[in-house]
Amino acid sequence: MHQILPNFDPETVRRVIQNDLPDLKIEAISLIENGWDHLVADINGQWIFRFPKSAHIYSNADLRFEVEVVILNLLKNKITLSIPRIEFLGKSFTYMAYQKIPGNCLTREVFDRMNQTEKEKLVFDLANFLFEIHNSLTVEEARKLGIRDENLPSYSDLVKAVLLKHMTDRLVRSFAEETLKEFEAINPTEDELVFLYNDLHTDNMAFDDVNRKLNGVYDFGDICVGDVNMDFYPLYKFDPNFMKAVVEKYQEFSGRRLNLRRMVIYGRMGELCDLAEYIDKPQSPVYQNALHRVIKWQSEMDIFKIQ
Description:
alpha+beta, Aminoglycoside 3'-phosphotransferase, Chain: A, domain 2, 11 helices
C-alpha cells in the first residue's frame, strides 16, 4: 500500500513527481483543489497528476483510489467521450497520471451563448455518457469490484445532527425540514439501482469554449452503486430545464422512466449537507454557494412535483 502525500504544496508535489519521472521536464505546475478528497496537479498544461487526500470523511482513501484505477481501466474502451486514461501510477506515494483532456469547466456564460444545435449536441453527449456508464457494469459486477453502495441515510443524519441543530435562519430551517421529509420517503427499488458516475457537475466537464462542444469527463472518485436518478441531480443545480432535457434524451436511449422530482430532492439534500459541513465556516465559498442556491430554490419549491 502506498502512502498518501503528507503535504500538498507545489514543491512537495514537484519533488515526488520528479523522483518518479526524472525524464519529465516540469516547466509549469498548477495545483487545483478538487472537491473533498483529491488534489490535482496540472503539469505543463498537458498532464494531470491526481492525488487522494486523507480527508476526514474518508478513512479508506487508498482503497477508493485502487477501485477507481480498476474502473478507469475497465471503462477506457466503453465510453464514447474522452475520460482519463491512466499512463502512470505513483511508486512511493498514491497518485495517478494521465494526459489532460483539453477544455474548461462549462460555465453559465458559455452555455447561454450556445445555439440550439450546440445545446442539443451537449444534451445528447451527457445522456449518452450516463447511459454508457450505467450499462458498463451490472450492480453485481460493481459490488464485486469493491464499489460501495451509496449511503442515503447518511445525508439525512448529517442534516438532522448538524444543520437543524445549529442553523438559525428560519427560512433555511423550513426548507431543510420540507426537503428532509421528501428525502426520507425515497425508497429506490432494486430495479432502480445502477453503477453510478455520481459526480456530473459542470466542474468535471472538459468543455471546448471555442467550438462549444464537450470533449470529455473526468474525476471518477465518487463512483458507487445507487439510484439511477442520482446521476442527474448535479444538472439541476446548473439549470433545471437543461437537466430535464438530458433526462428525456436518456429515457429515449434506455426506455427507462426517471423521476425528475427525486433528482430535485437529491440536489437539495446535497446543498443542505454542504451547509452542515461548513456550518462553522459561513464565509467559505462552499457555504455561500449552497446558501445562495437554497434561497433561490425557495421560490420553486414544487418544481417537477406531481400534484
